[in-house]
Write a structure and sequence with these properties.
- The protein is of the alpha/beta class.
- It has 3 domains: 22-87 and 288-529, 3-Layer(aba) Sandwich (Rossmann fold), CATH 3.40.50.12780; 93-98 and 123-274, Rossmann fold (3-Layer(aba) Sandwich), CATH 3.40.50; 537-655, ANL, C-terminal domain (GMP Synthetase, Chain A, domain 3, 2-Layer Sandwich).
- Helices cover 32% and strands 23% of the residues.
- It has 21 helices and 31 strands.
- The strands form 8 sheets. It has an 8-stranded mixed β-sheet with strand order 13-12-9-7-8-15-16-24, sandwiched between helices. The chain has a 7-stranded mixed β-sheet with strand order 6-5-18-17-19-20-21, sandwiched between helices. Strands 1, 22, 23, 25 and 26 form a 5-stranded antiparallel β-sheet that branches.
- Strand 30 (574-583), helix 19 (591-605) and strand 31 form a beta-alpha-beta unit.
- The structure holds adenosine-5'-monophosphate-propyl ester (PRX).
């Protein structure tokens, strides 16, 4: 990280401002709270809630959550370890389903599920039905020997059973580790091994572009060397034949058929672990980010309610896959704790054609819609005739996440999804943060491409290398100065890396300063713009992938000696993966081998990490300690200035990197 300067400068300043309508402001959830508290301006409210963040979160925790036992202390902050709601007992499953199922929301629809095949009907699941399904699976997991604190890996497509599996784990105090189903068996294997999961929940297969594809064979391969795994629970989704190990494999429908539909939620300590979610960092080894029950009861629900202004009648659609943090917080826990109706769509946005998402919005009267810039740019390319064919008048608010949204895509989104008038909540956050940190509220005047300001209850700033806040127009490191309830608590079994990656940078100057790993800038009005990662982490179609992970997948091929992986800017996906490969002696360069290497990465890591292009090189630039200088590789390959090369052991290698534009 130290290779790059913390500060950069901004070349283009956005001057367009899009104020919210009076109606949106007046009826917003945040405005109701402001009126109750006597705040007259957004600025004043944001300032007060940042300053009094502990008190603020205490109030939110009372407003949004039912606690089994109250806390003795709101926050115990011993940097870099925070404990919130100390001594309190709760369970996010109780808040997400139990309380709704026995209350007024029993018959309200929790999930609307749209299968990918167009001949399969949409399913609606009420909170009452959801609670029963969760309870049956929770009892089923118990019958398989799963206990509080055990880890359960969930490797599933976007179907309601995935959310049910997560909440069932939470209910009995098991810790779930969801692995994105776009990872291959290799990606699943490392995550199951690290978590030492007792059970894996999966499906026989899933539908993609109209075809049933197998999933379970990946699990068979991934658990073959994982002795911790005692059972594999399989949802029958695609109806295809899959290999079966009768001693280990259990059909989900058979398991739950035998179970009672009543199950008490375990009384968890607020700081008990709810889940581990592996995410990519600077090394090839994914980091297991740990989140807790208490924080997850409060953060996702409160931020969803304020930012997306969720009302009782809204139909909420967050298009993210549950395999990523956005799905955890805003398809499962946030909307369920609020008692919202949420869409789940199984498949591709362009199947059978580019009208599919618009059709879903029209048919289900989706009112609040949240997606990634990559999807918007894909629709932009497909053309505005697609949204024009459908009635999108049910929409009232839009959102964006996962990568910077360029102003052109922002305007296109507003015009074509939002009829030229809907506000866009561009939410900046991370797997580590659990919830949005920098985001507009429905009352905020917007600038295209800016997530605007730190949310209430947060103290986010942009610092130079010496921990000084940067002046307007100058980029620096985005940090959080104070803890928040839904923040990560640790890395699973790797406390040293946790300290090093997030807290070390400013420890000597200001201990307890969280380094997010993104560069950002503020303009003269305080509007944030996110400029991208400071570390070697790729963002491909919004998915977070580590350069090092792709490089080690390449090096695992018998013909590869070394590899350097960079992100090449891409009009639609933000970035695509490009690899520079040094072959072993005797291996012949060929176009076929390039294809084979890309396929090899797909097999090892999954389609999500597929390199778009492979180039053969004789050498790659390295530091004297042998670290590949990806920054230099990237600059040379893209035809940008390579900067200071004095740290290189082999400056001649730079010349050999081809221009790839
Ligand atoms: O670089 C930022 C980018 O996504 C990173 C976090 O990735 P992940 O943990 O996979 O979580 C993605 C979903 C929250 C951040 O460090 N990022 C996320 N949201 C935005 C963003 N970049 C710019 N604008 C955003 N709204």
């Amino acid at each position: 990280m130290a290779e790059q300067k913390a500060t950069t400068s901004v070349l283009l300043e956005e001057t367009r401002i899009f104020p919210p309508s009076k109606e949106l402001v007046e009826n917003s959830n945040v405005m109701a709270w402001m009126k109750k508290k006597g705040f007259t301006t957004e600025k004043e409210m944001r300032a007060w809630t940042s300053q009094h963040y502990i008190q603020f979160w205490g109030e939110m925790a009372k407003d949004y959550v039912d606690w089994f036992e109250p806390w003795a202390q709101l926050l115990n902050w011993q940097p870099p370890y925070a404990k919130w709601f100390v001594g309190a007992k709760c369970n996010v499953a109780y808040n997400a389903v139990d309380r709704h199922a026995k209350g007024a929301k029993k018959d309200k629809v929790a999930y609307i599920f749209v299968p990918e095949p167009t001949d399969q009907p949409t399913q609606k699941i009420t909170y009452g039905e959801l609670a029963k399904a969760v309870n049956r699976l929770a009892n089923g997991l118990k019958s398989l020997g799963v206990q509080k604190g055990d880890r359960v890996s969930i490797y599933m497509p976007m179907i309601p059973e995935t959310a049910i599996a997560m909440v069932a784990c939470a209910k009995i105090g098991a810790i779930h580790s969801v692995v994105f189903s776009g990872f291959s068996s290799g990606g699943l294997n490392s995550r199951v091994l690290d978590a030492e999961s007792k059970v894996v929940i999966t499906t026989d297969g899933f539908f993609r572009r109209g075809k049933p594809l197998p999933l379970k064979p990946n699990v068979d391969e991934a658990v073959s060397n994982a002795p911790s795994v005692q059972k594999v629970v399989v949802v029958k989704r695609a109806g295809i034949e899959v290999p079966w190990n009768p001693a280990r494999d259990v059909w989900y429908h058979e398991l739950v058929a035998k179970q009672s539909d009543a199950c008490e939620s375990e009384k968890m300590d607020a700081e008990d672990r709810l889940f581990i979610l592996y995410t990519s960092g600077t090394t090839g080894k994914p980091k297991g980010i740990e989140h807790v029950h208490g924080g997850y009861c409060v953060g996702p629900a409160q931020t969803l309610h304020w930012v997306f202004d969720i009302k009782e009648t809204d139909v909420w659609w967050c298009t993210a896959d549950v395999g990523w943090i956005t799905g955890h917080s805003y398809v499962v826990y946030g909307p369920l704790v609020l008692g919202t109706t949420t869409m789940i769509y199984e498949g591709s946005p362009d199947f059978p054609d580019f009208g599919r998402w618009f059709q879903i919005i029209q048919d289900n009267k989706v009112s609040v819609f949240y997606t990634a810039p990559t999807a918007i740019r894909m629709f932009m390319k497909a053309g505005e005739t697609w949204p024009k064919k459908y009635d999108l008048s049910s929409l009232r608010l839009l959102g964006s996440v996962g990568e910077p949204i360029n102003p052109e895509a922002w305007i296109w989104y507003r015009d074509n999804f939002g009829g030229g008038k809907l506000q866009i909540m561009d939410t900046w956050w991370q797997t580590e943060t659990g919830t949005f940190l920098v985001s507009p509220l429905p009352i905020t005047p917007l600038k295209p491409g800016s997530p605007t300001f730190p949310l209430p209850g947060f103290n986010i700033d942009i610092l130079d290398e010496d921990a000084n806040p940067v002046p307007p127009g100058t980029g620096g490191n985005i940090v959080s100065n104070t803890p928040w309830p839904s923040m990560l608590r640790a890395f699973y079994r790797d406390p040293e890396r946790y300290k090093k990656e997030y807290w070390q940078m400013y420890w000597e100057i200001r201990p307890g300063t969280y380094l997010a790993g993104d560069k950002a800038t503020k303009d003269k009005d305080g509007y944030f713009t996110i400029q991208g990662r400071i570390d070697d982490v790729l963002k491909v179609a919004g998915h977070r992938i580590s350069n090092a992970e792709v490089e080690s997948a390449l090096v695992s091929h018998p013909k590869v000696a070394e590899a350097a992986v960079i992100g090449k800017p891409d009009e639609v996906k933000g970035e695509v993966i490009v690899a520079f490969v040094i072959l072993r002696t005797g291996a012949q360069e060929s176009e076929d081998l390039k294809k084979e290497l890309s396929k090899h990465v797909r097999t090892v890591l999954g389609p999500v990490a597929y390199p778009e292009a492979v180039f053969f090189v004789k050498d790659v630039p390295k530091t004297r300690s042998g670290k590949i200088m990806r920054r230099v590789v990237k600059a040379k390959a893209l035809g940008n200035p390579t900067g200071d090369l004095s740290a290189l052991a082999n400056p001649e290698a730079v010349e050999a990197i081809p221009l790839i534009k």
